[in-house]
Amino acid sequence: MADQVFNVLFLCTGNSARSIIGECLINRWGQGKFRGYSAGSHPKGEVHPLALEVLRRQHYSTESLRSKSWDEFAQPGAPAMDFVFTVCDNAAAEQCPTWPGQPITAHWGVPDPAAVEGDPVERMMAFRQAFRELENRIKIFVNLPFDSLDTLKLQKKLEEIGQTELGE
User: Per residue in 118-136, pLDDT tens?
Assistant: First the structure.
């Protein structure tokens, strides 16, 4: 297990903000032990400009990011996922595809920053808050003692991470 790279898929309905941010964060904080992906049940077709701005301000590369369907990851030849996290309540309530490899799943709901309207400062603050909340959860996740947790204990830990109110 020590040399294994775990594939992690972040799901949201539109795959334009929260799931994209999760993908970037796991790739940074996972330090080669985790490989992040993101997708949506009904992808918007583009990454939200404020999500890109938040990521750029934190020195993340954004050039290869794209909004895509979760169907890509249920196809033959797709990378087998070890973990699948829904980050929006809508995606958590939808019937997900059958993922190859039977990944461990959990819901890590984060308020949708793209739903915030009006003042540009408030809108940017919502994206920054989503970034911080996901970053805190991912930092906890990547530091779990994977070698000493069986599947049931790991599932419980992942659910607990999703229940935490972080980044306030």
Answer: 899 999 999 999 999 999 9
Q: Per residue in 137-150, pLDDT tens? A: 999 999 999 888 88
**How far, in Å, CA of 20 to CA of 41, rounded?**
13
Domains of the chain with bracketed CATH: 6-152 (3.40.50.2300)
Which residue type is seen at 52?
Answer: L
3-state helix, strand, coil in the chain (%, to 5): 45, 15, 45
Give the count of beta carbons closer than 10 Å to the beta carbon of residue 14.
23
Phi, psi of 85 (to 5 degrees): -115, 125
Residue with tokens 């992040």: 36
Q: In angstroms, rounded to a whole number, what is the distance separating the alpha carbons of residues 71 and 122?
A: 33
* Residue 39 · residue 148 · CB < 8 Å: no
